[in-house]
Design brief:
The complex is a heterodimer of chains A (488) and B (478). With 488 residues, chain A is of the alpha/beta class. Chain A has 16 helices and 11 strands. Chain B contains 15 helices and 17 strands. In chain B, strands 1, 2, 6, 7, 8, 11, 12, 13, 14 and 15 form a 10-stranded mixed β-sheet that branches. In chain B, strands 5-4-16 form a 3-stranded antiparallel β-sheet, with no helix packed on it. Classes of the chains: A alpha/beta (488), B alpha+beta (478).
Chain lengths: 488, 478
């Protein structure tokens, strides 16, 4: 068979079980696709070709196993997931030569499910950013237009899946880092409920907000990926013990009985004309299909950006204290004293955005400022949680845009962090609420760039969310596969 | 010059007696080669997350219950942020508000009778690793075996007023926590160490002076020395009109002096905030009840109980202070319910023998049951007191049955009255002159006759009953 890389995850899995092709054939095809597209998009920081081929051979030796929901399926993980014996950099120079000594729970579960991890994908340094431009290893390009960013921070994961390097991948979402790049690259991305997926072994950014989730080219494929990793974990005390639903066989839901709430605070933002057009068309299509759309309000959303940047930066400032040049990672040559070692290693090892957030986080936690910033932000977070739950009393799900602008040209906001922080307005309220959300493409703009839309549901009800997502996915026109062209 | 009075508060760190660390399953083992008990969690690898050691939580709650604290059903871990090479995460995981235990007290002997020292709080936290400075080669090595070891920090109110009180408090607290098996308390290993906060104020005033904090003292002697030195130093500063600066001090044990570690300006801003990787710490009422029920008696309670049994204070204190003595006593009591006789016999025979062999009574071959039998034999008059004392070393070493051994040695007392009567008649017949003297009213001569009877019985007769038998025989013949 040719062009196996074009297969969606579910199709590939069925083909493997039916022995239409072997795991090794599929993995080799995907590795070839990676080789062919990497010069154009730079989505991968490490390609684990030898490991992957060996693993595929081993799987083939054992034979297809229908008990393993990802048997033989090639995948990628964002470079914040610990993978034993592989470099794990989080896109930072400070971890340039760092080799992991243990494996993240997600990685372990993917292996148990039979997946073959082929590459570790690029991201903004320590998952801080919305474009992958803050990766210390160069930005990833958008497969639809390589002059443009893929979004971020899981931009490598989104670009890789959109460019069909592998049929699925895992990223993390702290303030939109799965949903926004999925939207800008035209693939599906799911941020599960906080605590649904173990954080063990995932390099932390904002611990109370970070959540791992899948990328794929269909909602169903995302469901299969989530099913393989969700659930309690003795190694992560914040992982929930609420039972996991059967995401592959959800309860029946009729599109005509769907009521979606549209938060007016998000829909009233100013959109670029291309995005505006596609979003309006999407609403029309949904209404035509019989979906009931209604306006809802979450008045505190206007404080969400400020609140998020205080909370996430505060946690980040201490999560990143361990990168000190003492035990591992980058150590600056200046060792004239302990303070010098710290200052120099951290000043040279961390990039500008990470330093900005460490400073911000350190400031808001400082004695005398804690009450004015951190405590207030925590209060806003609770308000948003309450308003989110209240909004879901009058509808089943919320529907919102993911980004007010399409993928932008490199360098557009490099010196304007505040503008780019504001762009997160669409995605980060969901992280503050701790609830699950699914971003899926709803069309291509006149500029040929994908536009995404997200639906958000109740905590720990990913099953209903995924079902509703696959219903509305069928309402929107398929956007096709980008023809990846190298940068000119 | 106004008379100044020291005000002292203590912060005690006690290492909890757990097999594994507070947030991972690495062993707590100090003798080990450096960095052999570490994992991704306690060495601060990227992505690793802590998970709570339930045993540590239980021990912290137990300390709180024993010290009369309010054990909070819900408490929170916070990150205490600072940089140091022995701190792998760049923060210590500690508790700020609320801690696991609040309030509580422990009383000590004060200058004017018992004095209650109130506790502010007890909280859980993890220990740091260890820096080893290699001066010769100008480098620092780091051992993370200790990183993540569970500690409780016990904070007192500033209610101690002298080094004597502070040391007495610490000794008592140490004894209690060791007895409860909350900590091993090996001070030379740093398992029980303390920071001393100390200031001076004019006697009678409520207003506290500027305090200094002496860090990390790991012996009772150093605590006493450091406090005395610091009182002198602060007094001299006040007397010369300079006043005390708020600072953190280190006690130089070799010179017996405190030295500045850092000034107030250099104090850390720890940027405490709730640790997002750990859920709220919960202790349910059921556990608190179980801990309360399982608490051993306090020395005060034991003393009270022994006093109620009619046991003298000195004897009671001996039973309480000697390891295993009280337990032995209580077991013996089950077999022979004569607390006064038992305890006296213990202090006269058993405790000295145990001390000589450096063992606890409970480790002796002579079981409490056998010891009770011995006391019983004496009480019944079956075994003479002197014979018992002579027999004891062998009993203690062998753990043999006292009655059997006494029988074998032929020292069992003649309590059979016909045997005694026969002996008495025999003695009177052998000493007619003395018998006559007694009959003529020389009562004292009876003692001589008793002595003769004892000798002829080889000490097996009860002297009191021998006297009675002789008296009866003499009177009958007169």
């Amino acid at each position: 068979m040719s062009e196996l890389w074009r297969l969606g995850l579910g199709q590939a899995y069925q083909g493997l079980l039916a022995k239409d092709f072997t795991a090794e054939e599929l993995v080799l095809d995907c590795l070839d696709r990676i080789k062919a597209t990497e010069p154009a998009i730079n989505a991968c920081l490490t390609v684990l070709d030898e490991q992957a081929i060996q693993q595929a051979k081993e799987l083939d030796r054992l034979g297809p196993d229908p008990q393993r929901p990802l048997w033989g399926v090639p995948l990628t993980v964002k470079d914040v997931f610990s993978l034993k014996g592989a470099p794990t950099t989080a896109g930072s120079k400070i971890l340039e030569n760092y080799l992991c000594s243990y494996e993240a729970t997600v990685v372990q579960r993917l292996r148990q499910a039979g997946a073959v991890i082929c590459a570790k994908t690029n991201c903004d340094e320590f998952a801080m950013g919305s474009s992958t431009e803050f990766s210390a290893y160069g930005p990833t390009s958008n497969p639809w237009n390589t002059q443009r960013v893929p979004g971020g921070s899981s931009g490598g994961a989104a670009a890789s899946v959109a460019a069909c390097q592998t049929p699925g991948g895992f990223g993390t979402d702290t303030g939109g880092s799965i949903r926004q790049p999925a939207a800008l690259c035209g693939c599906v991305g799911l941020k599960p409920t906080y605590g649904r997926v173990s954080r063990y072994g995932i390099i932390a950014y904002g611990s109370s907000l970070d959540q791992a989730g899948p990328f794929a080219r269909s909602v169903k494929d995302c469901a299969r990926l989530l099913a393989s990793v969700a659930g309690p974990d003795g190694l992560d005390s914040t992982a929930s013990t609420i039972p996991v639903d059967d995401y592959l066989n959800p309860a029946e839901l009729d599109v005509k009985q769907l009521t979606l709430g549209l938060p007016k605070e998000l829909w009233s933002a100013s959109f670029s004309p291309e995005v505006e057009t596609v979003l309006q068309e999407a609403k029309t299509l949904l209404t035509k299909a019989g979906v009931n759309l209604k306006e809802v309000s979450l008045p505190s959303l206007k404080y969400s950006v400020a609140s998020y940047y205080i909370l996430a930066s505060a946690e980040a400032s201490t999560n990143l204290a361990r990168y000190d040049g003492v035990r591992y990672g980058y150590r600056a040559p200046d060792r004239s004293g302990l303070a010098e070692l710290y200052l120099s290693s951290r000043s040279h090892g961390f990039g500008p955005e990470v330093q900005r957030r460490i400073l911000l986080g350190t400031f808001v936690l400082s004695s005398g400022y804690y009450d004015a910033y951190f405590r207030k932000a925590a209060q806003v977070r609770r308000l948003i949680q309450q308003q989110y739950d209240a909004a879901l009393e009058s509808c089943q799900f919320l529907l919102a845009p993911v980004s007010s602008i399409p993928a932008w040209p490199f360098g557009s906001f490099t010196n304007d962090p505040l503008t780019i922080y504001q762009l997160d307005m669409m995605t980060l309220p969901l992280n503050l609420a701790g609830a699950p959300g699914l971003s899926l493409p709803c069309g291509l703009g006149a500029d040929g760039l994908p536009v995404g839309i997200q639906i958000m549901g109740r905590a720990f009800d990913e099953s209903a969310l995924l079902k509703a997502g696959s219903l509305i996915e069928q309402v929107f026109p398929p956007i096709g596969t980008p023809e990846v062209k190298a940068k000119e | 010059m106004v008379e100044m009075e020291p005000v002292i508060g203590l912060e005690i760190h006690a290492q909890l007696k757990t097999k594994t660390k507070l947030f991972c399953s690495c062993l707590v083992d100090f003798g080990a080669q450096p960095n052999t008990h570490i994992c991704e969690i306690c060495s601060g690898q990227p992505g690793a997350l802590p998970r709570m050691n339930a045993k540590a939580l239980e021990l912290a709650a137990k300390a709180g219950v024993a010290l009369g604290c309010k054990v909070n059903n819900r408490s929170v871990f916070s990150r205490k942020n600072y940089f140091y090479p022995d701190l792998p995460n760049g923060f210590q995981t500690s508790q700020l508000d609320p801690p696991i235990c609040q309030g509580g007290e422990l009383s000590i002997a004060g200058p004017d009778g018992p004095k209650t020292i109130h506790l502010n709080r007890i909280h859980l936290e993890d220990d740091a690793g260890k820096c080893i400075h290699d001066e010769k080669r100008g480098r620092t090595l780091i051992d993370l075996n200790r990183a993540g070891v569970p500690l409780i920090e016990i904070v007192t109110e500033p209610e101690l007023n002298s080094s004597t009180e502070a040391v007495e408090f610490l000794k008592k607290l140490h004894g209690l926590l060791v007895r409860l098996e909350v900590t091993m308390g090996r001070m030379e290993e740093g398992e029980f160490r303390c920071d001393v906060n100390i200031s001076l104020k004019p006697k009678g005033s409520d207003k506290l002076g500027v305090r200094s904090e002496i860090k990390n003292l790991n012996s009772f002697r150093y605590v006493g020395q450091a406090i005395d030195f610091e009182i002198k130093r602060q007094t001299a500063l006040y007397e010369s009109g300079q006043g005390v600066l708020q600072q953190t001090l280190h006690f130089d044990t070799a010179r017996g002096e405190t030295k500045t570690l850092r000034s107030k300006e250099e104090a850390h801003d720890y940027r405490y905030f709730p640790q997002p990787d750990l859920p709220v710490v919960t202790v349910d009422e059921q556990l608190i009840r179980e801990l309360q029920a399982g608490l051993p008696e306090t020395p005060e309670q034991s003393l009270e109980k022994l006093a109620a049994l009619g046991i003298r204070d000195e004897v009671a204190k001996l039973l309480i202070d000697r390891r295993g003595a009280l337990e032995y006593f209580e077991q013996a009591l089950l077999n022979f319910n004569e607390p006064k006789r038992l305890s006296t016999l213990m202090t006269e025979l058993l405790l000295p023998a145990c001390q000589k062999d450096a063992i606890a009574p409970t480790e002796s071959l002579l079981t409490p049951k056998l010891f009770a039998q011995l006391a019983k034999l004496i009480e019944e008059g079956t075994l003479g007191r002197r014979a018992a004392y002579e027999l004891f070393p062998e009993l203690f070493q062998s753990g043999l049955d006292p009655k059997e051994l006494a029988q074998k040695k032929g020292v069992l007392q003649i309590s059979d009255s016909s045997a005694l009567e026969a002996l008495a008649a025999q003695i009177i017949a052998q000493h007619p002159k003395e018998a006559d003297k007694y009959r003529q009213g020389q009562d004292k001569i009876l003692g001589f006759l008793v002595g003769q009877l004892m000798r002829s019985s080889r000490g097996a007769a009860d002297p009191k009953r021998a006297g009675e038998a002789l008296e009866a025989a003499l009177k009958a013949q007169s």
